[in-house]
Amino acid sequence: MATIAERVERGVRLLNRKKGRRWYRRIDLEWLNLAEPCRCIVGQLYGDYMRGIRELGVDGLDEGFTTTKSFPALTLHWKRRIRQLLRAEKAQPR
């Protein structure tokens, strides 16, 4: 079974393809909670978790959008990864 970090990275790659490379700018990290359908990554991008999962054509587990274990741990991994993406973007020369 894939680690949380590996699943989150799959989710990042999927969102890069489906929503464009800067989708993470639309995520409110203070509000982010993977246990809440409208506050999770997919919910914030698509308005609702189930609608987003249908549009993405995935079940969400392999992409780190949901879990069978710890939602707080999954939320923490997503926050860390999005912060990394934001820092990397700021470091890019303009």
Topology readout:
Blueprint (H helix, E strand, L loop, with lengths): L3 H16 L21 H6 L2 H8 L14 H21 L3
Helix pairs in contact: 1-4
Explain how this protein is built.
The structure is a single chain. With 94 residues, the protein is an all-alpha fold. The protein has one domain. The chain is built from four helices and no strands. The protein has helices at 4-19, 41-46, 49-56, 71-91. Helix 1 packs across helix 4 (71-91). It is globular and about 40 Å long.
Oligomeric organization of the protein chains: single chain
Strand content: under 5%
N/C terminus separation: 40 Å
Sheet with the most strands?
Answer: none
- Estimate the mean pLDDT confidence: 95
Residue share in helix: 40-55%
Could you say which structural class the secondary elements and strand pairing correspond to? mainly alpha
> How many domains, as an integer?
1
Shape label: globular
Low-confidence runs of at least 5 consecutive residues: none
Topology, number of strands: 0
Q: Sketch the topology as an H/E string, one letter per element.
A: HHHH
Rg calc: 12 Å
Discrete helix count? 4
